[in-house]
Amino acid sequence: MPGELGNSIEHLLGYYYVQEISSMLSVLALNPQPGEFILDLMASPGSKTSQIAARMENKGTLIANDLKLDRVKILSATLERNGVSNTIITQKDAVAFCSNIAKSQFRFDKILLDATCSGEGTLRSSPKTFLMWNEKIIKKLSRMQKKFIAFALKCLKAGGTIIYSTCTHAPEENEEIIDFALKNFPVKVEQISLPLKCRQGITEWDNKSYSQEVRKACRIYPQDNDSEGFFVCKMTLLEDIK
Hints:
globular
């Protein structure tokens, strides 16, 4: 059914966009509003970017960034097809992009960091993920994700919202990243209410303990919602980071 919907003329014309239900949750948690300045740091293929723009009613400014040219081309095509008109597309390394913003006086109202991850939550629709999975990759990704969130927070305004999300179950890529942010930056984890069955974040894994605050994060398991696996956490920056 999804394949048929994705091949329809209505989809081609941008009347609708086919999206996995769990991946829509990060934008619901972000709660974009018209007139805001928002950053989608890792935006391709553009499903969440389109969802953000729709929630903004194409009013305000949305920056959609991705690193590789082929992904940026897909992102651009998605936004054009969906009639998105308030978005600026950039092709930058996420850390370099945030570093440049941090040097200026500009700060975003809200940031979506849908981080590059191991993709464990997509196994039911993408079995090839099994072939690429190993513990070394997870540890490498965890190091990268900590760097991503550290630099992303530096271009968020005080009182602003950042959503950290992944399509994986690995605590090293989820709760460990939130725990890292809590220990190193003036952030507060916010309770979120989402329209799917959510399980709370875990506080212990592989002989590591995480802050009790990570329990406010939302874990989506395939068996609970007939969906892909997902992780969403909402944080507020309490003061400017110099």
